[in-house]
Amino acid sequence: MKKDAKFYWKLFGATFTLSAFTFGGGYVIVPLMRQKFVEKYHWIEEEEIMDLTAIAQSAPGPIAVNASILIGYRLAGVFGALLTVLGTVLPPLITISIISLFYQVFRDSAAVSAVMRGMQAGVAAVITDVVISMGVKVVKGKSLLSILVMIGAFAASWFLNINVALIVIACGVIGAVRVLYETKKKGGAAA
């Protein structure tokens, strides 16, 4: 792909519009990023966006910003990461600045409260969609270990209330051990 001014503007514009029209938190933006960067522009492969999402989720900070950094860097290096972060951060910055000017009016508005309650159901549906589609990909991968890790991570979070950061770290360690084992196994078989 040609990295000219048009490409950089498109990259910035993509993250800006995603951020401007996404409500409900970082997880909502993930399927929209997939749709934009994988399906529409074909800049990133499906598996790669899942990997970038996993990294973004496990890093500290907002997932939308983390994902935009990774996508921008993957597509256009440091400059791409800066553009995508700017595109992701500007819309909420502008929105929050405007809301803060009229905070009293928004706080006391029954209409604004009703809209926010209505949006919660939509946000829950989008997050559920992300979870199901990522879970289906893990199951379709037919890796028993990945399926067990997914079930174990869910159980640890849902039933045992274990801190999500600890679950992510444990899953990362399991993944690293798996890769080391498979690499050693392939190396041993070749010798």
General description of the model:
The structure is a single chain. The chain has eight helices and no strands. With 191 residues, it is mainly alpha-helical. It is a multi-pass membrane protein. Belongs to the chromate ion transporter (CHR) (TC 2.A.51) family. The chain crosses the membrane at residues 7-30, 78-106, 118-138, 144-177.
Compose a concise summary of this entry:
It is found in: Cell membrane. The chain has 191 residues and is mainly α. The protein has helices spanning 5-20, 26-40, 46-58, 63-101, 103-107, 110-140, 144-158, 164-190.
Kindly list the characteristics that best describe this protein.
191 residues; Chromate_transpt; transmembrane; chromate transmembrane transporter activity; Chromate transporter; membrane; mainly alpha
**Which geometry do the CA atoms define?**
globular
Give the ordered list of helices and strands.
Answer: HHHHHHHH
Strand content: under 5%
The helix/strand class is mainly alpha
Q: What composes the largest sheet?
A: none
Mean pLDDT over the full residue set = 86
Compute the number of strand runs: 0
Query: Which value, in Å, is the CA radius of gyration?
Result: 20 Å
- DSSP summary: helix tally: 8
> What share of residues is helical?
over 70%
Detail the poorly predicted runs.
none
Number of domains: 2
What is the rounded distance between the termini? Answer: 40 Å
Membrane topology: Multi-pass membrane protein
GO molecular function, one term: chromate transmembrane transporter activity
Family: Belongs to the chromate ion transporter (CHR) (TC 2.A.51) family.
Organism: Candidatus Gallacutalibacter pullicola
